[in-house]
Every structure is written in structure tokens, then in C-alpha cells.
Specification:
The complex is a heterodimer of chains A (about 300) and B (about 375). Chain A has about 300 residues and is of the alpha/beta class. Chain A has nine helices and twelve strands. Chain A has two domains: about 100 residues; about 190 residues. In chain A, the strands form two sheets. In chain A, strands 5-6-7-8-9-10-11-12 form an eight-stranded mixed β-barrel. In chain A, strands 2-3-1-4 form a four-stranded antiparallel sheet, sandwiched between helices. In chain A, helix 2 packs antiparallel against helix 3. Chain A is elongated. Chain B is α/β, with parallel strands linked by helices. In chain B, strands 5-6-7-8-9-10-11-12 form an eight-stranded mixed β-barrel, surrounded by four helices. In chain B, strands 2-3-1-4 form a four-stranded antiparallel sheet, sandwiched between helices. Classes of the chains: A alpha/beta (about 300), B alpha/beta (about 375). The interface between A and B is large, with 45 and 48 residues.
Chain lengths: ~300, ~375
């Protein structure tokens, strides 16, 4: 059901003096966004008022009861680390109007697999992969480079995983095709290679690790969910036979706590506090992704992302 | 600890249970025994008269007398002799009977086995005799079926939004059966969408096995329908203690959250939602949010379809699942003492949080009891009520 902006404004103006309005901006994570909506709706069910979507990316609870609103706000703080803003009308009306005007609509998302496949297929080879660089220890000079599929900023985790699989396949196809390889970002000589792979692993036995060993051994980054696959041990064995270390990649800092047992590298955004990391031989213990790198990541045996 | 399965106290059924217990004890304690299995149930009718049986008993007599051998008569007429090593007498009897008994088309009628090494093989004999055949998973499922095209999958997902799921829903009770108890008490009723059924209906000839992300999209679309039904106030309020195996995405879908709201505090306290480990690994942030939501709302978040090798690779302390569902595998009974110890070490310390799925044979229950596990889902318990 679409709600027009003029309708929401009219409803806002019609609220009796002293009314509370709770606003929750659209969160980047759709799960967190749905949890926020569920708690606003529960506050409305318990304490009166009603929830209306602001068409340009927010949920509004109009006419909330103070007790129910406070309970929802506290629960959301605990659950998603974000609380709705509370406005009292008519005093805050102008400020609320300005805040609403400042919101921008969320980026459109593909809603079908046909659209997703088209999106992935339409990317020119130059944009299919992204090259990033990693340092080890306190020295910020890069020692490793990661060739990863482009991040399409998809909200749905399953569509994102499928897009990753499709783009990984395109990157691998381009890497093994002399006519296309030159259109991928140019790998720097002398840097250890981290290569994102689809769940199926390497395509055939065509790609061997180039005979590098020890701390120069290239690292294959599989999605963390590969760990639950019955065929994972065979996959890791194939990779080792082809001269690769096995690693995992996740976009969540929570991934760090899930991996038990040594032997595998993990590339993920770093949690604020250093976790207990299992030893992993010649593979780095942890590969910190992203721009916000806490100081604990600049230790020997850990790789951390540096600006290109 | 001695494990006795409740059942009749005399007769072939009781002897079969006693033999199963003896095999399990050998397997868990590593005590060596030699066994002889006589497949008398496979004898042709003409050779099953009393005088034939007398002949067999005469051949067996020498082995029974001087040693501490025990003899078990199984339902169907098979005989199993269990003797301490070296079991020389058994070998002699085996040789004598092999000469005496005719050839059967499906293999020899007299077989010797060693315990504990061949424990699983002998247990399958016992369970076969009791009419409880352990189904073993094929080692590798051939997934020759191709994935569906994007257009076909889109059409299936659209169809799921309005499909009638009634024919594809499956319910199974989950039982508590304490060590030595005869009658199980119900804990929860599991309700799930049977996905192979829906795949067959909506995407015949295709498989999503090679594309887990697409499999999850399909599952979520089906479970959205289920959750929308369950979220109707009259359904949610009348709900008995339930165990819902769901995709992580489904739990956090608008329909899942509406169901959570409709249940109320009492309904939530009786609800367990089990998500697969692969979903947790695919979305660790989402799993952490679901765990926080479960604690906030008062329902239990569990992990579904875990295998021991999962538990060895994954650290679950951060997620702290309230329930862990393991699927029983007959292979667990075999293997060396070290392998069995490694398996035991991976089990969650709090055994009250473990449900053993696939408890289709008494041996699964005995295995669980020896490890303090008392919650089960499977045919052998359903039959007991």
C-alpha cells in the first residue's frame, strides 16, 4: 500500500497537541528494519497510535503512548543498536518536517532473479571485480591483494550471495581467458593473492597456485557457509592440491566468533576487541576488511585492508 | 551404566533387545567378542522342519558347552552366537555349518563377525530381525538435476505466494524419553514445509542443491506462507508447544515477526525455532540479531540438522543456541574408540539441549541414553504411543 507524502503530512498536522511521534529512518539492514517496524507496530497495538511509512525511507509511529513508546525504544536499542527519534507536536513540528524533507529514498533493489541475473550480466568486465590491498603488522605497505567480485549493495542476504556466486564465476572466466584478463584490474607483481571463489571452488584444475609456497601461497576465499557443506573437506583438499590455502569470507564481524579449529584464514570486518584466534600456519590468522581497522589488527600474522 | 530398552521380557523380541544391548556395550567399552550369525530365516521351507533344527543344534552344542558363549534367537528364526575371543570353536562350527547348509542366492547363511569392529553390521542384523531397518544415507547423492532457470524460479516464487501448502506440511512429535522409561512424553510438535514435495510440484526436473542461496530463497517463499497462516490470531493463540524448523531469513521476515507478535508471552515460551547452520554462516549478523530477538521475546532459538563434523568446526558459544538438533547416523556405532571419543567430545555439554532426530531404531535411543540425551524425534518413539 503506497502512502502519499501529502497524506502523511495531513495526518501529522491533524494530531492533537502533545502527541508523540516516533521516527525510525530506514536502516541499511532489511532484517533490522523489519524488527524496528514490528516493535513500532507493537507499541501502537499496546498504547494506541498508528504506524505509517514515510515514502522516502522511514517508519513513523503517530500518536504513541509514552510508556509503550519508551519500551519499544529501549528494546530496539538492545536489539539493533538504534533507537527511534521522539518528537512532541506541535513544538517539534518544524524540526520534524525538516528531518523528513532531508531523507532520501532508498536505492531500488532487484526484486526478481531475472533482474538480478541481468544486473550481473550487464556489468562490463572492468567493473566485475574489485582489487583491494592489505598490509601486515604495523607497516602499512601492501603485502597482499584481493581480487573480489564487485559489491552490488544488495540488501537481501540471499540475493547478495547469489550475485556473489554469479560475479565470482565471471571473474574466474575472465582470469582464464587471455582476451578478457587484461580488462580486469591489474594485479601487482610480488603481492600475495587473495581470490574470492564461488562455493563450487576452482573451475576444474586449470588454476594452480603458481608454485608459490609458505607465506606467498595464494589464499582462496570461500563463503563462510561452505563450512557447513558436506563436500567442504574434499573442496579444501582440492584447493590444497592445487597450491592454495583455504580461507573464508564474511561481511559480518560476528563471523569471527564462529570459526573453531585452526587451519583456515577468515576475511571479515574486524570486531572492536581482538578475538581469540586459532593458529593457522602459513595462512594469516585474520584478514581485516573495511576502512575502520582497530589497532589490534596491525599485529604480525594478521592482514588489514589499506587504501589503494 | 546398563541400558535396558523397555519391552517384552522373554521371547525372541527380548533376546534381540538383549543382543542389541550387548553389541552396544561392546562398541562403547571396546570389549572384543566373536559372533556367528546363522540366517536360518533364509532357509528354504523344506529345510525348516524340526529334525533339521535338531541337526543344527547338535552342531552348535560343542561351542556352547566349554566356552562362555551366549546364544540369541531372533524374531524370524535367526540365531546369533556370541563368544569371547579367540572364538576358535565358532570358526569350527562356522566351517561345519557352511558344509551342512545349502547355498542361498543372497549370500552365505552362516557368517562370522567381530565386535566391536563390526558392531554396526551386527546391529543392522538385529534390527532387521526386529522389523526395524536402519536406513543409511547413500554416501553421495547424485545431483544430476540441473538448477532451474531464473525465469522458472521467479515463477515458482510467485506461485508460492498464493500456493495452498496444506498438502506439503508435515508434522512430527518430539518426545522426551528418560533413561529406562517405557513411555515417552510429548515435548513439541514439529511442523515443517516439505520442500522436496514443493520442488517437485513447482520446479519438476530441477534441483537447487548446487545453489544454496537460491534454495534459501525458495524455502523463505514457502515459509512466508506457513508463517502468515500461523500468525492468524485464532491459530497463534491455540498453538500447542511447537518446534518450527525455519530458514533464518523466514524468522526475520515480516510474516515471522507478525507470528511472534501474535503468539503472546505464553505461546512464545513454548516455541522453539530451529535454523540451519548454513544460514547462520551465510548471515552471522542476522543470526546474532535473531538470537537477541529470541532472548528479548522469550522463545528459544535452536540449530537444526547438525552433524558432528559441524560441531567440530564451529564455535557456538557466541550464538548460544537453546536447542541443538542432531541427526542420528548408524556409522556412529562403528569406528574406533578414538573416533567415538572425538564424536562425544563435540556434543554440547548441556545434553538437555540436544534433540536426536532420526531415532528410527532402538539402538539410536540406547546411544543417546549413554550420553545423557533424552529428547527424540523418530519412528521408534511414534510407535510406542
Amino acid at each position: 500500500m503506497k502512502t502519499a507524502i501529502t497524506d502523511v503530512r495531513a495526518t501529522l498536522r491533524a494530531l492533537p497537541p502533545g502527541s508523540l511521534v516516533l521516527t525510525m529512518p530506514d536502516l541499511p539492514d532489511p532484517m533490522a528494519r523489519r524488527v524496528a517496524l514490528a516493535f513500532l507496530e507493537e507499541a501502537a497495538a499496546q498504547g494506541g497510535g498508528h504506524v505509517l511509512p514515510w515514502p522516502r525511507g522511514a517508519q513513523l509511529l503517530l500518536g504513541a503512548a509514552p510508556g509503550a513508546a519508551a519500551r519499544a525504544s529501549e528494546a530496539l536499542g538492545r536489539l539493533i543498536g538504534a533507537r527511534p527519534a521522539t518528537w512532541t507536536l506541535p513544538g517539534d513540528a518544524a524540526e520534524l518536517d525538516a528531518w523528513l524533507d532531508g531523507l532520501s529514498p532508498p536505492a531500488p533493489q532487484p526484486t526478481s532473479l531475472v533482474a538480478l541475473e541481468a544486473l550481473c550480466a550487464a556489468l562490463p568486465v572492468e567493473e566485475v571485480a574489485r582489487l583491494s590491498f592489505f598490509a601486515e603488522g604495523p607497516d602499512p605497505r601492501p603485502v597482499a591483494q584481493r581480487l573480489a567480485p564487485a559489491d552490488l549493495a544488495l540488501e537481501d542476504p540471499d540475493l547478495r550471495a547469489q550475485a556473489r556466486a554469479l560475479l565470482c564465476r565471471r571473474v574466474l572466466a575472465a582470469l582464464t581467458d587471455p582476451a578478457l584478463r587484461g580488462r580486469l584490474p591489474a594485479l601487482r607483481p610480488g603481492l600475495r593473492l587473495l581470490l574470492d571463489l564461488p562455493l563450487a571452488g576452482l573451475p576444474g584444475s586449470r588454476m594452480v597456485g603458481g608454485g608459490r609456497s609458505g607465506r606467498a601461497t595464494p589464499i582462496a576465499l570461500l563463503p563462510l557457509a561452505a563450512l557447513a557443506e558436506p563436500r567442504f573437506p574434499a573442496l579444501a583438499q582440492d584447493l590444497a592440491a592445487a597450491g592454495w590455502h583455504t580461507g573464508f569470507v564474511s561481511r559480518d564481524a560476528e563471523a569471527v566468533g564462529l570459526l573453531a579449529g585452526g587451519g583456515y584464514a577468515l576475511a571479515a570486518p574486524p570486531p572492536a576487541a581482538p578475538p581469540a584466534l586459532p593458529p593457522s600456519g602459513d595462512a594469516p590468522l585474520f584478514i581485516a576488511l573495511g576502512r575502520d581497522i582497530p589497532a589490534w589488527c596491525r599485529a604480525p600474522g594478521l592482514l588489514w585492508e589499506v587504501p589503494a | 551404566m546398563s541400558v535396558a530398552l523397555p519391552g517384552p521380557e522373554v521371547g525372541p523380541q527380548a533376546e534381540a533387545l538383549a543382543l542389541a544391548a550387548l553389541v552396544r556395550d561392546c562398541v562403547t567399552s571396546g570389549v572384543e567378542r566373536r559372533t556367528l550369525h546363522l540366517r536360518l530365516s533364509a532357509l528354504p521351507e523344506a529345510l525348516r522342519e524340526a529334525r533339521h533344527r535338531q541337526m543344527i543344534d547338535e552342531v552348535l552344542a560343542p561351542v556352547m558347552r566349554p566356552t562362555r558363549a551366549r546364544r540369541f534367537e531372533l524374531p524370524g528364526g535367526d540365531l546369533v552366537i556370541v563368544s569371547p575371543p579367540p572364538g576358535q570353536h565358532l570358526e569350527e562350527v562356522h566351517a561345519a555349518l557352511s558344509r551342512l547348509l545349502p547355498e542361498a542366492p543372497d549370500g552365505p547363511l552362516s557368517t562370522t563377525m567381530r565386535l566391536p569392529a563390526e558392531g554396526a553390521r551386527l546391529l543392522s542384523v538385529v534390527e532387521g530381525a526386529m522389523g526395524l531397518v536402519l536406513r543409511r544415507e547413500p554416501a553421495a547423492r547424485p545431483d544430476a538435476l540441473p538448477p532451474p532457470s531464473a525465469a522458472d524460479l521467479d515463477a515458482a516464487l510467485r506461485a508460492l505466494a498464493t500456493a495452498d501448502l496444506a498438502a506439503s506440511l508435515r508434522s512430527h512429535p518430539i518426545w522426551r524419553l528418560g533413561d529406562g522409561q517405557a513411555t515417552p512424553t510429548p515435548l513439541w510438535t514439529e511442523t515443517r514445509v516439505h520442500l522436496p514435495d514443493l520442488m517437485e510440484r513447482l520446479l519438476p526436473g530441477a534441483s537447487l542443491a548446487g545453489a544454496p542461496a537460491l534454495g534459501r530463497l525458495f524455502r523463505r517463499a514457502a515459509e512466508r506462507r506457513l508463517l502468515a497462516d500461523l500468525a492468524r490470531p485464532q491459530v497463534a493463540r491455540a498453538m500447542d508447544p511447537a518446534c518450527l524448523p525455519l530458514s533464518l531469513g523466514s524468522v526475520m521476515e515480516a510474516e515471522g515477526l507478525r507470528f511472534d507478535a501474535a503468539l503472546g508471552p505464553v505461546g512464545r515460551e513454548q516455541l522453539v525455532i530451529c535454523v540451519p547452520l548454513s544460514d547462520v554462516l551465510a548471515d552471522p549478523g542476522g543470526a546474532a540479531l535473531a538470537a537477541r530477538l529470541a532472548r528479548e521475546r522469550g522463545w528459544t532459538l535452536g540449530l537444526d540438522e547438525l552433524e558432528p563434523w559441524h560441531l567440530a568446526r564451529i564455535d557456538l558459544r557466541a550464538l548460544d543456541p537453546g536447542l541443538v538438533r542432531l541427526r542420528f547416523r548408524a556409522e556412529w556405532l562403528a569406528g574406533s574408540a578414538a573416533e567415538r571419543a572425538a564424536l562425544d567430545a563435540t556434543l554440547p555439554k548441556d545434553r538437555d539441549r540436544v534433540v536426536l532426530m532420526g531415532a528410527d531404531a532402538p539402538v539410536a535411543i540406547a546411544w543417546a541414553w549413554q550420553r545423557g540425551i533424552t529428547a527424540f524425534m523418530g519412528k521408534v518413539l511414534d510407535a510406542r504411543r
